[in-house]
């Protein structure tokens, strides 16, 4: 295959992607366009610009963008409509960010006439799959370069040597190896590898970065009310907020109360199991709140169908199939269910827990009149239940008769 | 339909089932056999015997049984192999007890020559369905009597009048109406109705009966290790325990730390939504522990299939279809997956949370060699990932090409 | 419950619904509005008007409507987008007509100020459920009267006596009992009961009404091309046709070639098994054609998801849940998949079979370049397959290693 | 990677695998063990032995086995219990044979101390995946060699040149290229490629190899009765037959009547669509017969669950995951359902169709008493249906009330 001429690189400004930048130039003799996005990871973007300039990238080839609102509105919120949990536990904080980055990489490639995109994900993880499937789906002719799978810089020593050879500044704390690997965005922070590789060992407290420990959280509960419209959160304690503002606010609340820490072993799409520690403070509150408002506004038939399809939907996102027909089909199904998911969930935040304590809605399907132990004024005829049971039992009785024949 | 001659009644010894006992005799002129089971509800059984005798039931017609081991071994544990949660949250504590009671009712009916069984569940709830479907499945010719759907004792006043007319002793605290309705067994305590009927109102603290509030729980975490074999918990902190002993022990631990409270609105099988407050202290720990041990011993393909079918399985139990071919088929599928679910999960209990902090197993599928960021000695060839992605992307690229045509 | 004042009756003009008409007037002293629809059952509607008039129904209370286009466009076609088959075989010809009739019953009730609707389905079948669930969903306050479940006219003799008492004309051939029961509309004709009740006996040839036997069909195959847009058939042999015209045309073709006969035993929603003989000539061709065009235009991910959900979707329609959130959610999912289902399927019709022999589409995903055994000019790198397999195998190899430990 | 020392080759005796045999020796300097199996493909095996000897394989390294009974008993029949159809149509005739061949390859490798296995599947198809996933699952340390993905013999000319250089005899009719590619076993014959590559063109008659055309089939129907026990066919017209005998007999019947031809475009696991023509004469009859006997012996709950999971099960087999936990879990579920699938299905074979015309069973769940239009002696109380509907409608009515608020 011939060498790419121009490559758009997902660039963080850190050491690794700076090495990739230089390696791409060296290896392929190509022009590099850098793309740095603010997805709420909590880092300044301007240093990335400076670093790119320092490494010789032309100003018109440096793309810096704040994607926080798009991220929450078009990726996080649609996913939360599904109550998505991978393997029953993981809120998909890393998975959901990758398609957006890939989308912008491809769009910038098209805008700049680049013939390839590149990313800094390794060959053992899920992220390479997510980046690449999304890129290929959006531009089937694009070329994707994954230096970690290709190069010979297979040890820390070689990487640092390459950096030095290429005048890439190395921050002092990057000389040694990080004790674990981190990914962060507005939805979550994940930590994995190194000190976390033994799944029988409790994760050390210093791994956690955006939540206090439940033990250190306030001794007094805090209450919060989240308002929903069409399945999406729109307000906190009555104040209307944009998607990113709202999630930011929930992160503060959750972080303060030690909410959203999870330590798990998951099955990667590439076949091995890995151990991850995730912090999703705002997302954990949001999931509880969404289930809370659904509990009174979503019909049982709709809710159960959603629940049955959720694991599949979560798996698609985890595996990198955001831009696939089947994810879009499931999304259409889910979104159809959310029309009346409207109202307010009240939660109690305390020592790591976000507990729903109340829900109210103008679209409520909860009928005190029907459920009451008191006189229901004829809303429900208990005798109907006898027929309901008899008919439901008929096939079981026929089976029972056969068993006794 | 002619009157039943002999009826086996699920009898608690309480006021309501005592009224039913007398009503059955009065209404049908039939002989009543009482069946009182210890499912771990935390009440003495001997008073029920005394009460039945007092009401004139012949000694040979009084059945009192301790079913705790059978309950946990044959009902609770198989269900926990599935990680069953109804509507994403409810641990099915009431649902799972009903089939066992129905099974014994039918068996006692057959042993005593009774032609009917009776229960004290109302016509608005799920329990009537669970009792009756199970009874009909096990004995298609049995007759089931549900007095609450039939009689004219439709108010508290009428009930008490009937009790007085029939010399049924009324405990002082039963004169007034209970502020909510309770069901309990070794797995859980549920509370619903009356003061809980407004789902926007936080449940008052006095509703909770077997857990302290997280606020009142100890300020120091406690660690516990649960051992598993073939998917079932078999030990706590290394001590082998029978199923019921183990669950009892976990209930103590969970209750002490405020674990397993849940306040939710659920969709009943009979069509309306209802609000319930559940306490499942031991079960909540058990579920977390089971997911923990599965996370390292269950293959991803097996785990995801289980996750996708779990909502259906939970719905079947909730709806009363324990004794149905489809539940048995799902159970066979689930049990097949559990052969190697063996090892130990370590949990931290603190202020309402049971968090998995470690898992280890002789059957672990977690391979540090494969997942490591370090040199993996050739266990995994990162270049394979490129082909994996390319082939997975092919259909997406064909779609993308069509979109661009 | 008080008597209804005005009832809209699904009225065929036949003896049974004429008896119902009179019975409603007699039993409830209510006014009856008749609704007779042309769904393609192949009967004139004007005799129904005459009959209603003869029975004393006021002209303004006689509704006669041609619903064929609405039936095919809004009910049959959406269902065929899903390739719906109940229990793997039944094309749901009766099931899909009921919601439309119920919808018009309710709408006419609202237009005429009627407080109830009535239908002529028996208490053992599925149709009562379909009529009533649809009616309740569309108007939760409506009352539904099902005379067959209520009245005492429980034998043929009593029915005829009632007819005579009430001056209802009885056609000579209705004196005896029909040898089987028939339902027909543009999609299918079903026959069941009486001579068909023994499922081990072959259905007699005289049961079939709109298809010749394969043995009597032409000895020469006939070819037909069906054009599709967005998943719906729009043309036959290049000629654009409206939905009902198209299905009518396919029925002629299928009927002539003995296509679409099926003899099966199905599980009714009310719990027992029943044997039915169905003729769906046009629908059988349409299903094959739709699968044919999907085979080249629908991505594998989309197609498999549809296939997995189809049984659920078919069950919902069979059970009468057309107007339910879960059917609408599944429809949204299905419809999302059909955007590019466009092109032409060529079929061979011969002796009971409709075989796809060719498919072509401007939206085809079939790529000769990729699939060819010949040189593919680099479209596909076979070495990628090695990586694809290696990564897919990893979890199986980890399992294999465990098994060998 | 170092060279393998000894390789077990799936060897047909044909030109292609003979070339592979020599290529393995040449390329790797390894010893080759040949494995030739009779899976009912209809070819003599002794010529393969002769050919192997001629090519210099040591007698003790030549394995020739008749696997027909194992194939049908342990692979085909379990799959038919599921009514498995890939993409609604394909009976998986090729897919189901691959795991058995892989299993024997691995076992022979272990018996002979070989360190690798090899197969002749190309890099574009599904078979490579099926062979290799099975091999890796059964022996995680095995090495798999797929010459078509590796070698430089990328054209017919080069292949023939290699054959001549290596003294491999070339049958005259192999000089030119075959007009399409064929795979055959006791279950089916598949044809694909070359003349079949344009999916809009009807497959030419000469492609079909084991079925007459429906036009050439007898003008008189033939009836056959298939007996089942525990879900497996055990007899034809009352005569007990072993699995392979039975399928052989059905193939004769089906072939004679032109049954089991299918022409389709399918989605390959490796991402592209391909067109295949399949002949599955006996399997098509067997599937119809199995559905027939299930229709009276399988409960609706069991049947629907099976139907919903079937596409997943079929996909697993198609994709090569026979030896995976999820296939085994689904098999356990399916097998649990088959205990009472016993009795006889009567079919009419005529001009390409296998139509069920009767079913009878000692385990029948069909109850004439319940379904009859006649007096049912109280087996079913039609009034129960009213309650059944009312309760099923409740949630729809609550939705309707909300819509009208």
From TrEMBL, chains A, B, C, D:
SUPFAM superfamilies: Adenine nucleotide alpha hydrolases-like, Argininosuccinate synthetase, C-terminal domain. This is Argininosuccinate synthase. NCBIfam families: argG, PRK00509.1. It comes from Amaricoccus solimangrovi. It is found in: Cytoplasm. L-aspartate binds at residues 122, 126-127. It holds the Pfam family Arginosuc_syn_C. Gene3D superfamilies: Argininosuccinate synthetase, chain A, domain 2, HUPs, Single helix bin. The gene is argG. L-citrulline binds at residues 90, 95, 126, 130, 181, 190, 266, 278. It is an enzyme of class 6 (ligase). Pathway: Amino-acid biosynthesis; L-arginine biosynthesis; L-arginine from L-ornithine and carbamoyl phosphate: step 2/3. GO terms for cellular component: cytoplasm. ATP binds at residues 10-18, 37, 120. GO terms for biological process: argininosuccinate metabolic process; L-arginine biosynthetic process; urea cycle. Belongs to the argininosuccinate synthase family. Type 1 subfamily.
């Amino acid at each position: 295959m011939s060498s790419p001429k121009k490559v758009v690189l997902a660039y963080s400004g850190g050491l690794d992607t700076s090495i990739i930048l230089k390696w791409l130039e060296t290896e392929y003799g190509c022009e590099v366009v850098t793309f740095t996005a603010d997805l709420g990871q909590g880092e300044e973007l301007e240093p990335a610009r400076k670093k790119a300039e320092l490494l010789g990238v032309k100003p018109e080839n440096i793309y810096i963008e704040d994607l926080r609102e798009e991220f929450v509105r078009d990726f996080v919120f649609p996913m939360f409509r599904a109550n998505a949990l991978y393997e029953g536990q993981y809120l998909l904080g890393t998975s959901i960010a990758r398609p957006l980055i890939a989308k912008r990489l491809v769009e910038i490639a098209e805008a700049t006439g680049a013939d390839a995109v590149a990313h800094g994900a390794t060959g053992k993880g899920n992220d390479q799959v997510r980046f690449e499937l999304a890129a290929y789906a959006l531009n089937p002719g694009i070329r994707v370069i994954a230096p970690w799978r290709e190069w010979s810089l297979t040890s820390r020593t070689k990487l640092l040597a390459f950096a030095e050879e290429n005048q890439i500044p190395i921050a002092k704390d990057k000389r040694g190896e990080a004790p674990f690997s981190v990914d962060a965005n507005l939805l979550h922070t994940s930590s994995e590898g190194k000190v976390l590789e033994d799944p029988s060992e409790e994760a050390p407290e210093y791994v956690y970065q955006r939540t206090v420990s439940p033990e250190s959280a306030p001794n007094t509960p805090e209450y919060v009310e989240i308002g929903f419209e069409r399945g999406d959160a729109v307000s906190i304690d009555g104040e209307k907020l944009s998607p990113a503002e709202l999630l930011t606010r929930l992160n503060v609340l959750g972080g303060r109360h030690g909410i959203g820490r999870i330590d798990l072993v998951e099955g990667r799409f590439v076949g091995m199991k890995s151990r991850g520690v995730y912090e999703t403070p705002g997302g954990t509150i949001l999931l509880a709140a969404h289930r809370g408002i659904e509990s009174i506004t979503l019909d049982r038939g709709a809710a159960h169908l959603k629940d049955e399809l959720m694991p599949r939907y979560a798996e698609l996102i985890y595996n990198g199939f955001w831009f696939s027909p089947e994810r879009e089909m499931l999304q259409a199904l889910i979104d159809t269910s959310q029309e009346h998911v409207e109202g307010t969930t009240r939660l109690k935040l305390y020592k790591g827990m976000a507990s729903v304590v109340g829900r109210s809605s103008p679209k409520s399907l909860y009928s005190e009149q029907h459920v009451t132990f008191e006189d229901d004024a004829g809303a429900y005829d208990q005798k109907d239940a006898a027929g309901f049971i008899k008919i439901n039992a008929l096939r079981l009785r026929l089976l029972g008769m056969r068993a006794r024949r």
